[in-house]
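Hi W.,

Here's what went into the run:
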Amino acid sequence: MIWSDLWDVLLLRDYNTRVVLLGVALLGAASGLVGSFTLLRKRSLMGDALAHASLPGLVIAFMIAVAAGGDGKSMPLLLAGATMGGLAGVACILFLQRFTKLKQDATLGIVLSVFFGLGVVLLGITQKMDAGHSAGLETYIFGKTASMRRADGIMIAITALISILVTGVLFKELKLLCFDADFAGSRGLRVWLLDTILMVLVVMVTMVGLQAVGLVLMVAMLVIPAAAARFWTESIFRLALVSASIGLVGSVLGATASAVMADLPSGAMIVLACALLFAVSMFFGTQRGVLPRLWRRRQLNAKIARQHLLRGIYELSEAEFQDANPGHWVSLIDLLQKRSWNSKQLRRQIETAELVELVRYKTDQVALTSAGYAEAARLTRQHRLWELYLVHYADVATARVDRDADDIEHVLEHDVVEKLERLLDHDPIRIAVPSSPHAMEST
Amino acid sequence: MTGPAKIETTNQDSVEQGDCPLSVMDLTVAYHRKPVIWDVEFDLPAGSLVGIVGPNGAGKSTLLKAVMELVPRASGRVEVFGKPYHLSRRNVGYVPQRESVDWDFPVDALDVVTMGLYGQVGWGRPVRQKHRDLAMQALEHVGIADLAKRQISQLSGGQQQRTFLARALVQDADLYLMDEPFAAVDAATEKAIVEILRELKQRKKTAVVIHHDLQTVPAYFDYVVLLNMRVVAHGPVQEVFTPENLQKTYGGRLTLLDEVTEAMRRRERSL
Amino acid sequence: MAMLAVLQGWDWQFDGWIMVVGVLCATSTALLGNFLVLRRMSMLGDAVSHAVLPGLVAAFLISHSRSSLAMFVGAVIVGVLTAMFTEWIRRFGRVEESAAMGVVFTSLFALGLVMIVQADHVDLDADCVLYGAIDLTPMFTVNIGAYEVPQAAVVLSVVTLINAAFVLVCYKELKISSFDPSLAHSQGVRPAWMHYALMVLVAVTTVACFESVGNILVVAMLVVPPSAAFLLTHRLGLMIVLSVVIGAAGAILGHVGAFAIPRAFGMPSTSTAGMMSVALGGLFVLALLFAPQQGLVSRSIRRFVLSQQILRDDIVAYLYRAGERHGEAIAKRSDLITELFSSAVPMSLALRRLVRQDCIRDCGQQIELTKQGEKLGKALVRSHRLWESYLVEQAELDRSKIHDKAEQWEHFTGQALRDRLVDQTSSTGLDPHGTVIPAEPKSDDDGPPDAS
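Here's what came out:
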């Protein structure tokens, strides 16, 4: 039963399903796209505020229509009213931020609640004025996707198209705006104009989305895909793409689930699908996801500890035997003093290094294997070259030092590396590893 | 010579473990993939004024953050009075960087200073007149007692800095960490800050100050840590603050270095 | 008379209770709202009041009843979870706070919507959640002693007391951990504990209030009165008191307004909760405009008064200089306007005031300096030239740069300061441009004090 339903949905057999799926998919993509910019601009909840702020506009439009003799349910008129309300809300928020010391969150809260309160007051009046007439108005706030009609679908499609176009054309400018508004201003970009364009896009998407999925869920569409996408990438361009994709996929998943299981409200299912994608992204997102980040940190710490161990043994045998050939046994007690590790930590390091055959180990002594020697020599050379680089290029160094790069040659130009190596020519030690700069100075 | 981790330590202070106000061992901190400071190692003598000096991006703020356990360490250990930071937190006073303060917060200068006494006041007890008097004395001390009732955003940059120093004074910590207290203050305030630092020293406190102006280092501090991703040198100013070490820290900014050496020569002559 | 007609049908017993409930809501929320606003978490109320939906439904599904207690507990638990999830996502996922909040509350709300469908006949009225049912609160009563008291009033009184006790006892701890968490740490106050204590109370308060006033009014009461108070004062203690007063006033005005305003236009009364947030909005706008320090109107008035003072000084100094040059201190009105970069209206205001102060004579198009005015002009020009000397001699400023500074400072320089300037400059009697510095005007008679 469910499976045949699923096929019906997936193959888009039913006309209504086609409209709904296409509509929510486009809406998800558009709001994901716009949301990625509002997220970076730290205005995620702007959509929340202006969606609430649209209510008085909507009711006033309705009242005007009724006063003019219509039945007040003309969609374009209501939409226009709601949009005006939303824009007025945005204007108030921007005004308060510009002229008072109130922080953004407070201005959002104020506009959201006061505008919505006004809407409720007006709604109360219309409802008692002539009952029945305005009955459908507040369902606007909740929305009902399943009843999405062709006209709605077209409206959503147009909006999505516009937002893709605008963000595409203004991508460079928006990127700068989100990255550093002050800098954008100093580059002669009209920050307020860009901000306004961005906010108009948010208002447009929100207004179209409001009747499709409802208020709270519309807020979700603006926030969740963008926040989820943030875990996967550090580039703004890819963020916009990933965010739009997550919005699209989440919407289609949610709408499909709700179409298959007739009882589930589609708007809510879409949000839950997006929330699921968010949870997955938060834990597994390649760039900022929690687990990859933890994993990378562990890897890094392990790598640094390994480097400390190999370099420690190398330097000890270098000091003791005037060279660092493999096979020199150095005592654990000496090694222990070189670093802040305690004996337990040191032992654990040695054991893991022994597993990959970098060191050999007997009761209280440790030695490099030939593979370990090669690696230790490389690390020590690398380390000393970096130290030297810092000394000789200290004024430009900090921006370029990437001590953990696999190979110093990958980061620095060839002639710089050569020069550094020349600087160590008088190295008394035979091996191809330069001595530490500190050691050098004392000679 | 042993390893690269060893740095030329001119001062082999033999402070007791528990005495050492700040001891950093083998510290490596990495952001993302890149280590930003590594092999940092120093013990600070108690009762000294310590300047942390180094070029932009050398990791000075990172070092303080790592001390205060605000960024994770990749390796190494930090001990404050012989204990990890979170156990001796009450002995540490922190003067924040100006940007990190919410200047619109509805508190006046006196409030801010009084906050340094909350630990003494105790949980759930109201601030008493004697605490307010103490705070007022501290404000007098830094010369802005008449501005005590002014909201902090209405103070000038120098006055704001003095307020936070007055708070450090009343706080009665034993180790002070200061993130660029001299940034963007007027000459009078700079002088006031120096006096406060000296007073802290007299009271056997240790102050660790991130500092930018090389010219004033010999005059203000008696101990210095030269940092450029790793410690170039640390020790008493007279021994460590040498043109060679500065060259190694800052590289070939010769004009600047000439200036400093000149300034130091002048100072030596005046002694 | 009209007033009375509008208030027809007002019942003190009934409407009085509505106002009491409103005031209690406003008080309990405003107390905590101050700290939310200061910690930049104003939207938390919005988030919590939406997010509690699954808690309400779960409570119903588990207890199979609409018992208030079960619902209350369910909602509070989810409310606290909202705050905790937000904090976790912010901290571990490094997502900006408001975005984290947005993710959490919308997802929980959606979950609630799905659960409602499962719990077939949960009689959860969406209207009630959104707009509240404050107009109905007096109908659900409990007996306390001999009195019949609305249940909402009892619950809210308890919540208000708890919040007041919390803010009173932990005032200092809240203050320090909101202002400077790292200092709080070193003073032995755990900012994290304060954070969670605040979150729990916000959740409890939000849930307790929205049953009667709806979730949007909860947001209004949490955010608007503290924001208005924030604009009115620089002191935290006063800010809290003011926010409570504003909240209570908004609640009372709101109910009266909902009752009376539509009737004044011949319509039936409207939603009390909505009108309360509108009233709060109105009070906020008043604070925004007329706050003594930061109000937009007060600020522009102050700016205007100052610019008038400076313009008057400039007129007098201009006339005095004209007198130095040509022997008679006379200028055309039109010249004054162009030379002093002013325009007609401010100029005539300034001139009228100067005439009244007997500093100038206004002879139609010609303006002439009086004895009195000459004294004032002398003082100003003297200040100006002393400053120029000082800047060149003491601050070693370039001569081209001194005029603007002197021009600015002359307005704020009194005789005492002038005397000290004399002490610190060489006494050639000439300014850096070689012009004579006029002598200190004699202050024997009761002329106006020197420059304002």
